[in-house]
Amino acid sequence: MAGAFLRRPSPAYKTAARRALRVTIAATAGFYVLLYGFDSAVGATYALFGAIAMAGLSHLPGSGRQRAVLLAGVVPVCWVLITLGTYLSVRTWSAVLGMLVVGFALAFMAVGGPRFAGGATGLQLMYILPSFPPYDPASLGERLAGATLGLVLLTIAEMTLLPEPAALPYRERVARAAESAARCADRLRSAPYTLPEATLGIAQALSTGLRSSQVPEAERPAGAGLRSRALAHAGLATRTLLGRLTVLPPPGSGAVTPWDGGTGSGTAGGAERDAAARGMDQDDGDATEEHASREGRAGAAEVAQAGGGPDPLRAVADAARETAARLRGSSPDGRAHARLRQVRRSLTAADDGSPAVLRRNAALLEVADAALAMSTAADIAVRGRAADVSPSGPFWYARMRAPQLWWRRLSGHVGGRSVFFQNAVRISLALAAARLIAGIDTLPHGFWVLLATLTLTRTTVRETRATERRALTGTLVGALVAAALLAVAGTDIEVYAVALPPLMLLTFTLGPVKGVGWAQALFTVVVSLVFAQLAPATWQLAEFRLLDVLTGSAIGAVFGLLAWPRGAHDELRRSVAELLRTAAEIVVATTAQITAGGRRVPLATAPGHRSLQHALVMAESAYAQYQSEPAGPTPPSAAQDWQAALIAGHHTLWGADRLLVPPEPLVVPPLGRQAAESVILTGDRVAASMLLTSARTDPTGDTAQAPAPHHSSMLSTALAADPPGAPRVYYATVSWLAALSTDLARLDGDGDGDGDSGSGANPSAATGSDSAAST
Fold first, then answer.
1. Which residue(s) pair with 668 in the sheet?
2. How many angstroms separate the first and last alpha carbons of the chain?
3. How many beta carbons lie within 10 A of that of residue 383, not counting itself?
């Protein structure tokens, strides 16, 4: 028994306790100063709930300093919301209409990334608080002053009271991964032309560290702005570069060794991955550079000959080191980037050699493309619109201003197929209905009705029902405790004043860890103690609290049932099906243009290109929400790797762009008959496989009748023998189609693990949630 009491608290309790201490001190300090020092009950209320809204009920990501910066920017927004709520509450119809519009706008903010999504609940509360009677515009000054004091105290507390250290910035993560790519390229320049297990494990760990699920929310480059898009683009290109390097065939061989692309299932041990995640791979880098300088010269001639010109891997390594230096604040001259462009041009023009040489040439071209995308995106991330980048193709956003980029992001998610739009509609309709019922029935403390609707409504009706069951149980227990306390203490305000701080500290420590039942029970007692100090209260205050929570949860359940009740489950299947259908069109159009020859048409003008970009945005946002929802009673089959479908979409765009957009205007001859037939047949089979997988995925179709695609035999015709005299573009196209087939096999459970396929992700994608898309 003694050991249980002496047991050290878990990290979750420590984190919750630190946040609870900050919100308790800020909220109670503002509340007591204004209530007992200035006799302003209105100001005290807004000071208390301002701090609770933005720290207790919201989840602002980041360290203490990062949250303080966010809070400083939130203050003017809170002024606007409090002013709107004050003036619109004069009539029920205006209050309901305002709740509908403002509720949608604040919920839709989630498209801007975790920082916007984290503060949405608190901002909703700042608008809800003044939207109830008494209608008193004369008290607007007190309301604004109270809210400002609470937020200022909270900002100071975030900066000074047990602040968490900042996480490793995403820019540094990309820089470390770029350095690892440089070391891999150096290793591959000399015999035995393979990566040691230690180097491979470090590359896998650093690639995994760039995945959004592995990056703290405050560091994710998920915003709509130029630098955020470019930084996410650089991270995705770096992951692709690492993946390409680890499967690069040695000179004279066409074999490709599969790699999981950063899922952490490689051959290196866990200790090596942990060391890489902490950035403790510098010794390996020094040894690698010494090894490359000693042995690289001996193998450079052979590799350069296989690559058809200057040593491509040396150019890739130099460009990767230049990228890392730029991301860390240096100002390199860009010569490595320029040399890499020249090497890429020579690889594109090299059409002579044996089939093995041409296959390696195609693989080296993919490596060079990924390195160029990484270098260019990093330059934009650092220099913004001053970067010397052509605003076309994958870098369409390079010259756009912030309003344009935000408009593309917002307009792209306006529609019933966007989960951000669905969530915003669901919560805004529920809040408007709650405000209407509270206004018509004149419920006492109607504010609690909307608070319950806001905090208990979930994205699926099953989760909403389970949450509300626990919440109502907790509220009932809390109401009984509060009623007993109010009956015993009566009008003895000193009891409530003394009990409030420790109880609030306990509430915001246990609530986030123990769950919604504990949170509602303790919060019911907290609000009872608060309102008992504002005005004389009896045990019936706890009864009103229970009634309001019951009403609000019922409203949330109704709208959860009516508006997209299954959350992202069906939407993910539908969006993946649409993604694969559109990708199939791109595959057919690309292979047809390659076999026909002639002047190349930029991919951006190809049929279906914009649709595929938009389909990627919808699928990725649905996948992100799907991951945040708990598994249902019948969880989906583990064999379906949804991320493989996203990577197949990325890879379709990236490969088609590489094949169709040369570095300079170019007219190419058509392929020979045998090579053309092989490319067309293989492309048609890949497209057919995409369509079959799409039909089996789409929840609106008859998935039981859709035949299962056979990925294993799909490329047998194209890979059985090399057509005589086939040019470089043939081998590049077949390599692209083979990688797409691998992605599809992984989606259908024929692959060998979750995560990224060996084909790599799209280095031309602008963000993990925005996908270089038109949105």
1. 598
2. 58
3. 15
Tokens of 417: 């197929």
Measured torsion, CA atoms of residues 115, 121, 126, 128, in degrees rounded to the nearest 10: 150
Q: Which residue has the tokens 């460009």?
A: 319
Whole-model pTM: value is 0.80
- Token look-up 């009566």 returns 490
- The answer to whether residue 691 scores a pLDDT higher than 70 is yes
Place of tokens 């683009």: 233
Ramachandran quadrant class, 344 (left: phi over 0; alpha: psi -120 to 50; beta: rest): alpha
Identify whether the C-beta of residue 176 lies closer than 8 Å to the C-beta of residue 279. yes
Query: DSSP class of residue 491?
Result: T
DSSP 446: T
Question: How sure is the predictor about 151, in pLDDT bands with cuts at 50, 70 and 90?
Answer: very high
pLDDT of 774 higher than 80: no
For 96, 148, 550, 759, the CA distances from 49, given in Å and listed in that order, are 22, 11, 21, 51
Tokens of 186: 């150096």
User: Are 214 and 206 within 8 A, CB to CB?
Assistant: no
Structure tokens at 554: 């019922």
| Cα 319 to Cα 613: distance, rounded to the nearest angstrom | 28
Integer-rounded Cα radius of gyration of the chain:
29
Residues 324-370: pLDDT tens digits? Answer: 999 999 888 889 999 998 888 888 776 667 777 788 888 888 899 88
pLDDT, tens only, 544-578 = 888 888 888 888 888 877 777 666 677 888 888 88
Q: How far is CA 642 from CA 614, 692, 755, 773, in A?
A: 17, 15, 9, 19
Residue 599's H or E segment, with its range, is strand 598-599
Measured between alpha carbons, how far is 524 from 479 in angstroms, rounded to an integer?
Answer: 6
| Nearest in space to 165 (alpha carbons), one of 94, 242, 65 | 65
pLDDT digits (tens, 9 = 90+) for 645-663: 887 888 888 788 777 765 4
667: helix, strand or coil? strand
**Are the C-beta atoms of residues 414 and 204 closer than 8 Å to each other?**
no
CA distance 72 to 151: 8
Question: How far is residue 570's CA from residue 625's CA, in Å, rounded to a whole number?
Answer: 12
Question: In 328-339, which positions are buried (b, 16+ CB within 10 angstroms) versus exposed (e)?
Answer: eeeebeeebbeb
Pairwise CA distance, residues 289 & 164, whole Å = 36
For residues 645 and 588, is the Cβ–Cβ distance under 8 A? Answer: no
